[in-house]
Amino acid sequence: MTAPVQTDEKPTDATLTRRERERLARRRAMLDAARAVFAEKGYTEATLEEIAQRAEFGKGTLYNYFEGGKEEILFAIFDELYEEMEAVITASFAPEQVEGQPLRAVFQAFVARALTFFMQHQDLFLIAMKEAHRLTFSEDRDKMAYFMEQRERLVRALVTPLEAAMNRGDVRRLPPHAVAHLILGNINGLQMHMTLQSCAQPSPEGEVLRSVDRAAAFLTTMLFDGLSAAPASPAADTDSTTHTHATS
């Protein structure tokens, strides 16, 4: 299967014929059914028969819409997931979200939205991660390129607000592309950790990353403040020196 090609142009209801609208509605029903079946059973165990039954169409009808069968359906779902995640990034840094708000608060809200979106589609994202990892080391260059491009798509969406923040002087001027990769990588790591935590016995050590809000606050602190201890202010240094002399 050749990985689908991304296009920015989408037809609107006003430009579609009745037959085209009906076809899109049937395709939507098939993808919704496939999402549910994949989430419940996993990609490997799911069958076209189950998807067709859930969508209330015949198996042959599925092939009329997705000639590549189950794999083509899966990649169509991946297209939607990445598109929705890109929309999360764009909406999080929209002017009405940023104006008058500290960047730190805007960023923390973005991380919370991203984690919430992942948790809502956790089963499908785990399939995507598994397939991306497997195909990265395969000889199928089209699929490798597909996942790389989807990743870059999210990076580009995040680069735009990062560059704006750097231009305003809100954050240090660093390579925005590399910073975007780092941020998304950290969010992915949190997603995986929270998934594992949901399957494990609660522990005090894991509490800080168990909820979306706590995890978002923790990652924001790590990225904005780093691991270094806060430098002492001159006043604090003076107080410390005075105290040392007084007690020596």
Structure overview:
By secondary structure, this protein is mostly helical. The chain has 2 domains: about 10-65, Arc Repressor Mutant, subunit A (Orthogonal Bundle), CATH 1.10.10; about 75-225, Tetracycline Repressor, domain 2 (Orthogonal Bundle), CATH 1.10.357. It contains 11 helices and no strands. Helix 8 (about 140-170) packs across helix 9 (about 175-200). It starts with 17 loop residues before the first helix and ends with a helix.
Secondary-structure map with pairings?
Layout: H1 18-41, H2 48-55, H3 59-65, H4 69-92, H5 95-98, H6 103-120, H7 122-136, H8 141-168, H9 176-199, H10 212-225, H11 234-247
How many structural domains?
A: 2
Listing every helix as H and every strand as E from the N terminus to the C terminus, the arrangement reads HHHHHHHHHHH
Molecular shape: globular
> What is the name of the CATH architecture of the largest domain?
Orthogonal Bundle
**Tally of helical runs:** 11
- Give the helix/strand class: mainly alpha
CATH names the topology of the largest domain as: Tetracycline Repressor, domain 2
How many β strands by DSSP?
A: 0
Q: CATH class of the largest domain, anyone?
A: Mainly Alpha
The CATH superfamily of the largest domain turns out to be Tetracycline Repressor, domain 2
List the main descriptive attributes of the protein structure presented here.
disordered C terminus, mainly alpha, 73% helix, 248 residues, Arc Repressor Mutant, subunit A, Tetracycline Repressor, domain 2
Concise summary:
With about 250 residues, the protein is mostly helical. It is built from eleven helices and no strands. The longest helix is centred in the middle third of the chain and has 28 residues, at about 140-170.
